[in-house]
């Protein structure tokens, strides 16, 4: 009780009792009393009352410091002959009291710093949920599905502490926006896929029409060529048959003339007549053989012509099939290239969205480093990105 009373008497220091107080080591007892009072208990930081008690004790140290310092300063001005002793004593007093105050308040400061860091972590976590909705334009359905899965994976519970309600609202609102964007994007991609399918069907039909036209033209050319070859061959056969017939008729006339000559010469010599008749008979046999050979040659030529025409038709059919297959392969390659280009453009758009989000995030962090709130920093960055701030741009 006496020590508590001594701490209280600090307020009673005056010019009258100053000479006995402001001496070397004269303030140690006051410091010891204040120190004992503020360190004699360990308030509970987990309760508002305990934290208030720490603040009160620190304030008590400050008020005790002022209660001793002010009379001492007054006494110092009056006692010019003792400035060094009093100044040294007061400086030591102030230093110790400041250190004691800081030491006393440190648990509260540490607690407040920890609490602020804890709140900042929760605020950042809530903002991370909201950030899934930044710039949803041109985001593919697959990316939106991944974002929805990521947001749905965010668990609610006691680990959110007092931010659980805010986190739940952020999760719900973000899922609503992402699902709406997914529905719109899926409809858009379905429409684009349908347009591509219809265009592919139209081009495929056009390609089939072209192939059919090519096939018809090839068939017509093959038929015309075969007809022409057959016609030429028939004409050649007819000409050869005519030549053979003319040769045979000519030979018959010659034989007839020779027979007549033979008859006229028969009177000259019976032996010569018999020999002439024999020679005529032999010549007839040879002429018949020549006639038969000419007919056989003509038939062989006709067969060869038909075979060449059939081979030409087969070759034309093969050429037509090769042309159709080449056209099919060309169309398949074109469709594959078109599909690859669509995929490349989608990936490019996704990469551009990710790049822009990164640049916008870095710009937001830079603005926040100037003690600007995250919400305001985000609004500023988006306004600049939309070109609504004259003479200011963001380079992506």
Short description:
By secondary structure, this protein is mainly alpha-helical. It folds into two domains: 2-128, no CATH class; 163-385.
Please, could you describe this protein's structure?
The chain has 396 residues and is mainly α. It has two domains: 127 residues, no CATH class; 223 residues. The protein has nine helices and no strands. α5 packs parallel to α7, α6 packs antiparallel against α7 and α8 crosses α9.
Distance between the termini: 73 Å
Structural class comes to mainly alpha
Radius of gyration: 59 Å
SSE string, helices as H and strands as E: HHHHHHHHH
Content of β-strand: under 5%
Shape: rod-shaped
Determine the fraction of residues in helical runs and give it as a percent range. Answer: over 70%
**Strand elements, count:** 0
Mean pLDDT: 83
Write the layout of secondary structure elements.
Layout: H1 2-8, H2 18-21, H3 28-39, H4 48-78, H5 83-131, H6 141-152, H7 164-266, H8 270-368, H9 374-385
Helix pairs in contact: 1-3, 3-4, 3-5, 4-5, 5-7, 6-7, 7-8, 8-9
List keywords for this structure.
9 helices; mainly alpha; 396 residues; disordered N terminus; rod-shaped
């Amino acid at each position: 009780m006496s020590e508590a009373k001594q701490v209280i008497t600090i307020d009673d220091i005056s010019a009258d009792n100053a000479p006995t107080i402001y001496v070397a080591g004269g303030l140690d007892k006051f410091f010891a009393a204040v120190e004992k009072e503020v360190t004699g208990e360990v308030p509970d930081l987990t309760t508002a009352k305990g934290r208030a008690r720490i603040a009160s004790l620190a304030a008590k140290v400050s008020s005790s410091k002022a209660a001793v310092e002010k009379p001492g300063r007054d006494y110092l001005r009056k006692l010019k002959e003792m400035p060094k002793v009093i100044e040294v004593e007061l400086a030591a007093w102030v230093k110790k009291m400041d250190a004691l105050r800081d030491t006393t308040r440190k648990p509260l400061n540490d607690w407040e710093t920890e609490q602020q860091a804890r709140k900042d972590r929760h605020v950042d976590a809530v903002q991370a949920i909201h950030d899934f909705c930044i710039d949803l334009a041109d985001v593919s359905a697959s990316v939106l599905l991944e974002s929805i899965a990521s947001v749905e994976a965010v668990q609610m519970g006691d680990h959110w502490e007092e931010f659980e309600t805010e986190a739940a609202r952020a999760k719900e609102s973000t899922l609503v926006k992402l699902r709406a964007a997914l529905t719109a994007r899926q409809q858009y991609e379905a429409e684009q896929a349908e347009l591509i399918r219809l265009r592919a069907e139209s081009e495929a039909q056009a390609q089939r029409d072209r192939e059919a036209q090519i096939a018809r033209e090839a068939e017509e050319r093959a038929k015309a060529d075969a007809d022409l070859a057959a016609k030429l061959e028939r004409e050649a056969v007819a000409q050869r048959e005519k030549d053979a017939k003319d040769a045979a008729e000519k030979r018959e006339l010659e034989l007839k003339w020779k027979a007549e000559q033979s008859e006229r010469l028969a009177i000259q010599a019976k032996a010569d007549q018999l020999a002439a008749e024999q020679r005529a008979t032999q010549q007839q046999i040879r002429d018949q053989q020549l006639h038969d050979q000419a007919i056989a040659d003509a038939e062989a030529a006709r067969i060869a012509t038909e075979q060449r025409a059939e081979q030409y038709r087969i070759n034309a059919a093969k050429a037509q099939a090769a042309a159709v297959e080449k056209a099919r392969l060309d169309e398949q390659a074109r469709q594959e290239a078109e599909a690859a280009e669509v995929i490349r453009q989608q990936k490019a758009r996704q990469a551009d969205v990710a790049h822009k989000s990164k640049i916008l995030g870095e710009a937001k962090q830079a603005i926040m480093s100037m003690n600007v709130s995250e919400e305001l920093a985000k609004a500023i960055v988006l306004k600049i990105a939309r070109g609504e701030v004259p003479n200011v741009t963001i380079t992506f």
